[in-house]
Model the fold of this input.
Amino acid sequence: MALPTQADDFPAWYQEVVRGADMAENSLARGTMVIKPYGYAIWEAIRDALDLRFKQTGHENLYFPMLIPQRLLEREKEHVEGFAPEVAVVTHAGGEELGEPLIVRPTSETIIWDAYSRWIQSYRDLPLLYNQWANVVRWEMRPRLFLRTTEFLWQEGHTAHETRDEAWAETLRMLDVYRDVVEDVMAIPVHKGRKTEAERFPGAVETLCIEALMRDRKALQSGTSHYLGKNFAEAYGVTFLGRDGEEHHAEATSWGVSTRLVGGLIMAHGDDKGLRLPPKVAPVQVVIVPIFRSDDEQARVLEAATRLADGWRALGLRVKVDDRDDLRPGYKFADQELRGVPARVEVGPRDLDAEQVTVARRDTGDKTAVPLPAAGPWLVDAMDQIQRSLFDDALAFREANTHAAANYDELRAAITDSGGFVTGSWCGAPDCEARVKAETKATIRFLPLEREDPGAACTVCGEPGTERATWAIAY
Done:
């Protein structure tokens, strides 16, 4: 299939890649999607990498209902106001109007902290380190597969702590877990930072984030970790008897990532041929394409391909033989490139006679003739090289598309003409933040984790700067 180019129509390119690679499709209810096996396998790889790290850091999984009594949301005012435009409400069930409407879970702080009020009595009950894998519903006005859907899959961690220092350390620790998975497993470089007050999670004291740059030079918020302070503990009456014999409110965090990471993977690495998948998340790492002209050649080549695949699987590689006999090799090459398979191995009678295979790398397009006895170890090593190559390529792209602005004209020109990340000084005034958003659609994507003196006047208004800010147009 012929894809639109990224340069000509990035949104159309994205939609065609998702469709052509058989990752997902729109479902019947507006804004919902069916995640197909190939797309779900990528999500599983990301999910499993996260879940492993959650458990290594002492967290346990649990599950809460998706239907939440409306009265629970109303007990945390800022949280309710922040989610009100996105909330779906069940008012009728069993043929009758419900006595109390039920909220379809947009996030679970309310129902979880109601439970914590029963589970926490003493400092000995702390910390609670829990995570939930679930679906949530947020009524999305401009849906796009994986990136913004009315219903999506995610995980949400909800922890309770004895002290502020413990909760803050947890907030930072989970941000590092997200950074590790997105950079090491997904090969996407990210910036860690703080959100401004306008961009914080509703009800949070601080929101930390990781931000990545996509190939259309827009930013993607790829994970958030929130320090909630005592806000939810106070709203839901979560107190404990402290070591000093006094009653205290628990300190809280929450943190989450979702299936939008699959969309980020597509947009951070893809090219005009389709996906380019890092080997650590690729459902298929090596595809073998048999090449033959006659029945005799077919039997010989398929036998060799099956034998090679079994041997390489024993080395830990995920291998598929593309033995579809109704398609020409050229079609299979393009199809596997669209799907982003890291390495393609071509095997034909001439290759077998020469005791070699031809390997094409998806990241670079380079082709190499590899002796058969060495092919397995060569492919194992190539997976590491491709993983590093994709990260380095994404990092180089980000650095080439990061600009510094000394005044508002430079800031506006960089955002509208070049795109990417634009750094500059900010005075901290919400009016300056709102002006940039209104005139360019860019928002402050992050501030440094530790406040930095920018040493310059505010890029927007010229008043003394108090923060070093990074702007971008974002998904």
User: Anything to note?
Assistant: The first helix runs from residue 10 to 20. The domain at 286-385 is CATH 3.40.50.800 (Rossmann fold).
